[in-house]
Amino acid sequence: MKIAAVTAVVALIVREFVFANYIVYGQSMMPTIKDGERIIVNKIDYEWREPERFDLIIFHADEESDYIKRIIGLPGDDIYYENDALYVNGEEVEEDFLEETRNENGPEIFTDDFTLQDLTDELVVPEDHFFVMGDNRKNSIDSRQIGFVPEEEIVGKANMAFWPPQSIRFFY
């Protein structure tokens, strides 16, 4: 009985404070994460390090919904897209994770041109906030529509997909 109680308490603590599993709904992160896949989210990763560009994060989008998106802009960054290329602080930054989708898209523009100021009236990403985008740029509600994500709304970093079993993989 004691072993069962201790196991239940440890499992509850791990589930509440360390890891969580989420089901991804929608196509905004395709092909990286598909609709219906289950992922593991590390809730404490950011206790030890700052979020990094291109991390996949879960955040509270509103009181009812959590979203998964990719960090594109960090606090203090000036970001813009021009001719389907990401520029951060005036330097072009490669988005290797988009290559598969760009190849499928052909010559069509994958990410429409924008500046941070056009979308948000800000010149740079504010302190303690992030600019996020889905990998399926044509079908994603992200910072281009909802604005910056406050750091306190981040639940954690997506570490791996575990369901369906044939799609088990880690995210880096």
Automatic annotation (TrEMBL):
Its localization reads: Cell membrane; Membrane
Name by which UniProt lists this protein = Signal peptidase I
According to its UniProt record, which protein family does this protein belong to?
Belongs to the peptidase S26 family.
GO MF annotations for this entry? Answer: serine-type endopeptidase activity; signal peptidase activity
Q: Is Oxidoreductase a UniProt keyword of this protein?
A: no
Q: Does the keyword Cell wall biogenesis/degradation apply?
A: no
Q: Could you tell me which InterPro entries the record lists for this protein?
A: LexA/Signal_pep-like_sf, Pept_S26A_signal_pept_1, Pept_S26A_signal_pept_1_CS, Pept_S26A_signal_pept_1_Lys-AS, Peptidase_S26
Describe the location of the Peptidase S26 domain by residue ranges: 3-163
Locate the coiled-coil region(s) and give their ranges. none
Give the bilayer topology: Single-pass type II membrane protein
Keywords from UniProt, A to Z, are: Cell membrane, Hydrolase, Membrane, Protease, Transmembrane, Transmembrane helix
> EC annotation?
3.4.21.89
**Active-site residue list:** 28, 69
- Top EC group: hydrolase
Q: Which reaction does it catalyse?
A: Cleavage of hydrophobic, N-terminal signal or leader sequences from secreted and periplasmic proteins
